[in-house]
Amino acid sequence: MTPVLHPVALVGAGPGDPELLTLRALRRLQAADVVLSDDLVDARVLALIGPQTRLLRVGKRGGCISTDQRFIEELMVREARAGRRVVRLKGGDPFVFGRGGEEADALRAAGLAVEVVSGLTAGIAGPAAAGIPVTDRRCTPGVALVTGHSGEGGRAPDWAALARSGLTLVVYMGVARCEQIVAALREGGMCGDMPVAVVAAAHTERQQQALSTLDGLCALLAREPGLGSPAVLVIGEVGALGAWASAQAEAAHQLRQA
Ligand code: SAH
């Protein structure tokens, strides 16, 4: 007898803290027969998966090679065709970087239905955890989410156009490419004193944030290895509105009171 096929759920795990999962994400995780999880998914989110569910960690930090990707897609197809409820769990939002679109295409090409369960993306929830509103209208008309590492087959951002755009730039996977990104933005005309916030491991127990400038960024990252991956760079005036701004205001207030 042919089994009843369930849609494969591409589920966003959010940036870390399980409290930031959507209710739908939690339901899909708890009903799953098999979960294929990325590396970046927080252990506290994985702990919500029931003991009857098979958890497969299929992450591949950094250099993604296409055979791995094909293997993951084939595994999902095989499990779903056997009638199992499959969840593909990804850090943040499944459609913001991280190849969610490619996986959805592969599943549909195999004749399977796909359900996308959106999650909070690190590029918005991460800065927010440091008190940074990425589209604050006092500073910017909007935000661009860009990759610092376009990888094989991806298009590199037009840094000069971004430098002139006046948008907040939230750079994912940018720490290792700091030198090239800063040089390209400077060449595009961005000021060296533009605020840059780094938010690392946002919404996890290891969260760290720091404020720098475009010209000071690479030295800061070299000095503070804890600000490394996973981290987002927030390049733009909004960086200066972070929690440090209220900390400074508070310190100034206390000085005045003293
Ligand atoms: N789909 C994910 C992004 C995957 S790309 C999302 O929507 O968030 C991986 C990159 O995301 C990392 O290199 C880093 O730039 C960023 N990232 C993921 N989790 C993060 C976190 N908790 N804090 C800061 N940046 C994070």
Automatic annotation (TrEMBL):
What keywords tag this UniProt record?
Answer: Methyltransferase, Porphyrin biosynthesis, S-adenosyl-L-methionine, Transferase
Q: Name one GO biological process term.
A: siroheme biosynthetic process
Keyword Transferase in the entry? The reply is: yes
- One matching Pfam family is TP_methylase
Keyword Transferase included in the entry's annotation: yes
All copies of the Tetrapyrrole methylase domain together span 8-215
**What Gene3D superfamilies does the entry give?**
Cobalt-precorrin-4 Transmethylase, Domain 1 (3.40.1010.10), Methyltransferase, Cobalt-precorrin-4 Transmethylase, Domain 2 (3.30.950.10)
Organism domain of life? Bacteria
> Where does this protein act, in terms of pathway?
Porphyrin-containing compound metabolism; siroheme biosynthesis; precorrin-2 from uroporphyrinogen III: step 1/1
A Gene Ontology molecular-function term?
Answer: uroporphyrin-III C-methyltransferase activity
What SUPFAM superfamilies does the entry give?
Tetrapyrrole methylase
Which EC number(s) does UniProt give? Answer: 2.1.1.107
What family, per the record?
Belongs to the precorrin methyltransferase family.
Record protein name field: uroporphyrinogen-III C-methyltransferase
Specify the species. Answer: Roseateles asaccharophilus
